[in-house]
Amino acid sequence: MNYPNGLKKTHQACITTHKNRGMSLESDLNISNEYYREIDKAYIYKKPTPIQITKVDYPSRDKATIKEGFFTTPSTTDYNGLYKGYYIDFEAKETKSTTSFALTNIHPHQIEHLKNIDRHQGIAFLIVRFTTLNETYLYPAKQFVEYIETTDRKSIPIDIFKEQAYLIKDSYCPRIDYLKIVDKLIGGK
Fold this sequence. Notes:
Blueprint: H1 25-38, E1 43-46, E2 51-57, E3 65-71, E4 79-83, E5 86-95, E6 100-102, H2 108-119, E7 123-130, E8 135-140, H3 141-149, E9 155-157, H4 158-164, E10 166-168, H5 179-185
Parallel strand pairs: 5-7
Antiparallel strand pairs: 1-4, 2-3, 4-5, 6-9, 7-8, 8-10
């Protein structure tokens, strides 16, 4: 938005400082999702990891430190929320490999979860960043599940991503504009 004095409004989620350049995929997604919320485009959040805390060092209220805990249940996927009336659910992963994405990076219960979301008409997908190549892909759950159910491979070659997934171009704000691709998945509704 341009103001009469020539100043432009900057969204807080778009401010880049020295400390947050070249961040991880998760950080970039969190900033993108914050931007989507700021402009009232979508409400997508990082899911908290279900942890049971069993031991806390509590010298004072402002200095409490968790010393021990355990995962209560296997977590499903990283992100979920709403966009244009659709339920969105996805997992985000990074790999340093330049040739493939190892399937050991995603757990069977997460695959089953994505499959179930897709089966119930939600929008489910993986976002995979090949960090060395500086390429980020959105891989729809339907194609992802079909691929892993029809192959004995222990990884997904980069060529499969190039054929079946969508390359997400880097941008300034939002950093990872994956909703452009979600629009294609839902038919531009």
